[in-house]
Amino acid sequence: MLFIILDWAYVIFTTYCLGIGFSCFCGRVLGYRLRGGAGVLMAGLVMATVYAQIFSLFGGVGMAANVLLLVCCAVLILFFHRQMTDFLLEQLRYKKAYTLAAVLVLLLVWAYFTSRGYMMYDSDLYHAQSIRWIEEYGVVKGLGLLHGRFAYNSSFLSLCAFYSMKWLCSQSLHAMSGYFAFLLSLAVLPVGKCVKRRRLLWSDYPRIAAAYYLTMICDEVVSPATDYPIMCTVFFIVICWLEQLENKEQNRAPYCLLCVAGVYAITLKLTAGLILILLAKPALILIKEKRGKEIAVYLTSGLLVAAPWIIRTFLISGYLFYPLAALDLFDVDWKMSAAYISVDAAQIKTWGRALYNSALVDLPVTEWFPNWFGTTLSRTEKILIIADFASLCLAAAGTVVCIIKKAWKHLDELLVLATVGASYLYWQLSAPLLRYGYAYVLLLASLTAGWILKRLSWNRLVVACLAIVSCYKGFMLADYAWGVRGFPYYITQQEYGSYEVVEKTLGDLTVYVAAQGDQTGYEYFPSIPVLTYDFELRGESFEEGFRRID
Known about the structure:
Blueprint: H1 2-29, H2 37-56, H3 63-94, H4 97-115, H5 121-136, H6 143-146, H7 155-162, H8 176-188, H9 194-197, H10 204-217, H11 227-246, H12 253-268, H13 280-288, H14 292-317, H15 338-352, H16 365-376, H17 379-405, H18 411-429, H19 434-453, H20 459-483, E1 501-506, E2 509-514, E3 527-528, E4 535-537, E5 546-548
Parallel strand pairs: 2-3
Antiparallel strand pairs: 1-2, 4-5
Helix pairs in contact: 1-2, 1-3, 2-3, 2-7, 2-14, 4-8, 5-7, 8-10, 8-11, 10-11, 10-19, 11-12, 11-19, 12-14, 17-18, 17-19, 18-19
């Protein structure tokens, strides 16, 4: 736990420097500066992720990468130390003492949860090994041939490798899932103002949904799984977007920057692509006002965020976007076979639909949905899915009414509902494993409920229900925290799982293969579930990568 707190202190320092530097750039170029500590830290986190990926293109992401970033931070402090000091003092000056205390408590609580808990299956299957490959080599051509799961290139894993501090600590820390949860909890904190206000704003409803989600993952953020950061980021974007609408923000810059954050979300997980439906609002404004310079700035920013992730995906798999085999633009010797990708994509969908047979990928939704709904969901989850279908109908009806009445003032609200609704439908009809789309499930129901309830005088009832659920969830969290108090992770962090492996040869090099099952953890490197021998080394070392044998 102590190691995690120290690691997060370093994360906060570096991302704060990067975030303020970016804010100053926006101020000079766009006439807008970031507001709020959570927004600055998130902007810095995006930049740190991009930096880690760029560095991985040239070598292992370890001490050298951190030293270079510290040099960059020193330069930023030299040029922007006044802005950094002023922003920090402003945040401290206008925050109540109990708010600052709540932030500190949240940091300690999430550090405690991140130090111990359930290590998700996929983390010992491939997340741990993916992070170690980035730590040791950066990016390796054809790595997807060694283990197909490595081709699921998430920018989050590069960020994990960068802040793992393996070169400094006695272990490779995996603390960034918990940090994303901590950042989201900062965005949730303002929901407490509803007590003084005696009513809920529309942005409070996704905050409540986010708080509920955070209670669901507190026992799993020890795992560097990619599902948690993408869900937290989607929540963060929607909450910030609604805040801008409620503040009647006329400046187009914050909306554009949130769309750039949407591009970042896609690099975390490709399935988040529909979040960019939000782009319609700032795009129409910029085009209408012929803001060519600003359009160029935002397009360049989005490209800079996406480019290193796309390059990494290409080098690992031979495709720009994995597992989209249709975008086969390059003929390289490390390219994974289209047949394998097709089966892999089918397995993802059928697994999410509780079919567990890739041959059933084309089964109509009317046939697989009843079994999925009846066998994979808890009672609460079933209620949420039913609420989502009702929300889709209500949102569609509301849209029709707005069009008939020409109530164009509600277009901003409808855009948010359309974005969340489309994201939910894509998840539901593709691979509806709940951890892949919990944010969409909760956001659609909560936003629709808020859209309706804010027009009714039911604030007291809603707040009362919220208080009851909060007490219940608080009790559950306290019970879990008390139950794991005996684990000896108050200094260090719980390690990855340990598994038995056997040695295999690949050329003159050694590869470790799982003796049983398919999990191998972090310790033995490089390790994979099975060695197929349908590929070979491109040279004499792992650094030169792998190529397919036709």
